[in-house]
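Backbone-to-sequence.
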């Protein structure tokens, strides 16, 4: 019985310390184009085991979006890379009035539910790149923008 109590106490202590080891970043990027939207600001956190990333703020010009989660693609001493799909994202009313919503209901075939966003961070200098891409009619539509991040 004492063995099990000791094991349970150790597991609880390690779970508590692991939960507190969340790394948070704030990244800002240059504004992308309407036809290839990329984030201008992202605040996200990554858990200690790199099993998930939580998107706390995602600002994309002319796009209405919500917070969510992202997949951690790579997290080591040199780089951090996350990606997510734009599920629930849509062009803002102002963007639609400017022509963002074409005849197919989206700008140049961008379907946000299938549109992938990603952030690549070089940890040694905190320089980052954000990308967005969609596959349409067997050709890729890529947007990208450079920026910087700070660890919060």
């Amino acid at each position: 019985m004492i063995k099990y109590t000791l094991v349970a106490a150790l597991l609880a202590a390690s779970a508590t310390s692991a939960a507190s080891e969340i790394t948070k970043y704030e990244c800002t990027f240059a504004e992308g184009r309407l036809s290839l939207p990329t984030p201008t600001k992202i605040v996200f956190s990554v858990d200690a085991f790199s099993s998930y990333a939580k998107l706390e703020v995602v600002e994309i010009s002319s796009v209405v979006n919500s917070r969510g989660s992202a997949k951690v693609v790579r997290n080591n001493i040199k780089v951090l890379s996350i990606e997510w799909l734009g599920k629930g994202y849509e062009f803002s009313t102002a963007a639609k009035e400017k022509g963002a919503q074409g005849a197919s209901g989206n700008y140049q075939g961008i379907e946000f539910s299938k549109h992938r966003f990603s952030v690549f961070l070089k940890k040694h200098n905190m320089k980052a790149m954000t990308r967005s891409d969609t596959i349409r009619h067997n050709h890729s539509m890529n947007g990208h923008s450079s920026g910087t991040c700070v660890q919060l």
